[in-house]
Amino acid sequence: MEKSLSNNSMNRKRQSTIVQIECKICGAPAKYSFFGVVSCNTCKMFFKRNGERGKETLKCLYDGHCEININNRHICSYCRLIKCLNSGMQVELIRSSYPKRNKTNRKKILITSSHQTASPIQSKLNEPQQVTLIDNHTSICEHC
């Protein structure tokens, strides 16, 4: 009888349910919420690039009536940005990017700072040394 109970419990295994979440902008599969809305990575990056510039810089060729989906989301940036904003994406949640450094300036800074912070031992090693020469003709002993 114990065997039949264990078989019944094994037959009742939980079925894993995979919930497929769609991007609120284009309908592509999405996992996370970005800028306040569940969206895919491509829409996240699109909003990050274009959200701060605003809709004034973009123009729609079709009077703002474009359908945005996974197949044509790249065609009209204006309508895609409007759909991002209407779905609830917030420009305030975009972090400012780090300023890009010029590699040549960084090298110059490292070179100048290394010369200024040289230790006394390093500066002694870099100085030329004076060598005292002994004349072979002079005797070491005065009595000789």
What does the secondary structure layout of this molecule look like, with pairings?
Blueprint: H1 2-11, E1 21-22, E2 29-30, E3 32-34, E4 37-39, H2 41-50, H3 77-87, H4 103-116, H5 120-126
Antiparallel strand pairs: 1-2, 3-4
How would you describe what is shown here?
- By secondary structure, this protein is mainly α.
- It has a domain at 21-93: Erythroid Transcription Factor GATA-1, Chain A, CATH 3.30.50.
- Helices cover 36% and strands 7% of the residues.
- It has five helices and four strands; from the N terminus they run H-E-E-E-E-H-H-H-H.
- Strands 1-2 form a two-stranded antiparallel ribbon. A two-stranded antiparallel sheet has the order 3-4.
- The longest helix has 14 residues, at 103-116.
- The mean pLDDT is 75.
